[in-house]
Amino acid sequence: MSRVLAILMTASVVLAGCLGNAESDVFYGEDINPPMHVDDFVLMDENGDNYSLSQLQGKVIVVAFLFTRCPDICPIVSANLDFISEQLGDSYGSEVAILSITVDPWTDNSSVLANYAEQRGLDWPHLTTSNASDISDLTEVWSNFDVGLETYASDEDSDGVADGFDICSGTPEGEPVDDNGCGLETQQSNGDVKIMHHPLNYWVDHTTGTIIVDKQMRQRVWWGDTDWNAEMVLEDIYMLLEE
Hints:
Blueprint: H1 2-24, E1 30-37, E2 42-44, E3 50-52, E4 60-66, H2 73-87, H3 91-94, E5 96-102, H4 110-120, E6 126-127, H5 136-144, E7 148-152, E8 203-207, E9 210-213, E10 218-223, H6 230-242
Parallel strand pairs: 4-5, 5-6
Antiparallel strand pairs: 1-10, 2-3, 4-9, 7-8, 9-10
Helix pairs in contact: 2-6
């Protein structure tokens, strides 16, 4: 009898442990356990003004890391964030804030970010460093949010345009190219062409997603850039608003 009781008690402990783990994973995105505190920072916004994170104290904050030359996933993330801002209604701005932070400060100055936001009708702050020659203010933010960043110049056809931006592979050696890496003599389809005086000779690779910060300035939820589900991100935001 005592052996049966011991087995039952062990099973109860194991079951309780399993239930406890299930309850701790409460978000649709990846739970950040334990929650990570977000340090205050001051960066420059798309208007050239200083922007402090502390002014958002008490709000749920959706933080996305992107760069304007990103040809694929970044515009999709921006569109998803725009959708979320619309769906939040009156809560957007008053209870929920959105921030986009660049991972390419060497290109993304305030005017470039302003143009990116204006073209897409985005009305939240897009942040960069105030000094591209000393980006320590931005690297501290990347570190706090565990942003893995690498810049490299992968240029297979050696035409001066990084492969990530080159839509014309195999450009003949020595042939001048346009901004898209297409040879001016052999790879043009139609229209006027321009010689690129400042080639885009580096590429940015960053290993992070979108992070949702709670009202206590703690990182709580992580969404990978390729895993986005806007409706589920909204549900995660609503759960944090109710805390």
